[in-house]
TrEMBL record:
One of its GO terms (biological process) is proteolysis. Residues 1-29 are annotated as: Disordered. It comes from Anaerobacillus isosaccharinicus. This is S1C family serine protease. SUPFAM superfamilies: Trypsin-like serine proteases. It comes from the Bacteria.
Length: 261
């Protein structure tokens, strides 16, 4: 009985199937439309991801450019051209041999040798609080610096390195004079051995110079056209007295000589 019932059910199913049925073109079209819609969604998603990626990349580029120009102004870039030009001069090449990099644990500045046996001049604030001080010369010689004496009131310090026949600069017997042309050589920003030029604007208690000064120039020698140091850079200031422009401030050489060890 059961087998007969199952057979009757199968016969009923066969009656439901049309042996002459064929799928219509619309059936295939619907499948194609669904596939196209799916593909279109994938393409739109890829385009969206690509667009977002481009936007993020552009934002990063603008951020890098903004940081670059906030750190290195157009003036800072232009002084590289000036330094290159001045560095072709034989006297400037010679001066640069005596200008050093002063490196502490948390500070970096400039200094210069004033004797063949390694007496170095720099700023007090460059070495203040630094337990280990390294002194690097232009040709790559590196020495450990020993603090000999320091004068916070005039922002001058003297270091000693263990060297012989070191290149060094001569000190002027007198302070620089107003309108005198000068060179400034130092380690501004992330660069080293940058030479620049300017003039002395004032010579009262401080020597004010027009040469561009940046972070890292502290301790740079101000050298007159006779090749003698007439002042030591320690800061910069923007003031209305000189048309609102930034000027360099330097310790007059006579004050430096008075305190030499």
């Amino acid at each position: 009985m059961r087998d007969d019932k199952e057979k009757d059910d199968l016969d009923d199913l066969d009656d439901l199937v049309d042996p002459d049925w064929e799928p219509s073109p619309e059936d295939f079209l619907m499948e194609e439309i669904e596939e196209e819609e799916h593909k279109g969604n994938d393409d739109n998603r890829k385009k969206w991801i690509k667009t977002i990626s481009v936007v993020i990349a552009v934002m990063l580029v603008f951020q890098v450019v903004a940081v670059f120009f906030s750190t290195f102004s157009i003036d800072a870039i232009s002084f590289l051209k000036t330094s290159y030009r001045l560095s072709q001069l034989e006297d400037v090449k010679e001066y640069k041999q005596a200008v050093v990099t002063i490196q502490g644990e948390r500070s970096r500045g400039t200094g210069f040798a004033i004797s063949a046996d390694g007496l170095i001049v720099t700023n007090h604030h460059v070495i203040d609080g630094q337990k280990n001080i390294m002194v690097g010369f232009h040709q790559g010689e590196l020495f450990e610096g020993e603090l000999i004496s320091s004068y916070p009131d005039i922002d001058i310090a003297f270091l000693k390195v263990d060297g012989i026949n070191l290149p060094h600069l001569s000190l002027s017997e007198k302070d620089g004079v107003k309108n005198e042309n000068v060179y400034v050589i130092g380690n501004p920003l992330t660069w080293t051995q940058i030479a620049n030029e300017g003039a002395i604007l004032d010579t009262n208690s401080l020597t004010v110079i027009s040469a561009p000064i940046y972070r890292g120039n502290s301790g740079s020698p101000v050298i007159n056209m006779d090749g003698e140091v007439v002042a030591v850079v320690f800061a910069k200031r923007r003031t209305n007295q000189y048309g609102g422009r930034s000027v360099g401030l330097a310790v007059p050489i006579e004050k430096v000589v008075e305190n030499m060890p």
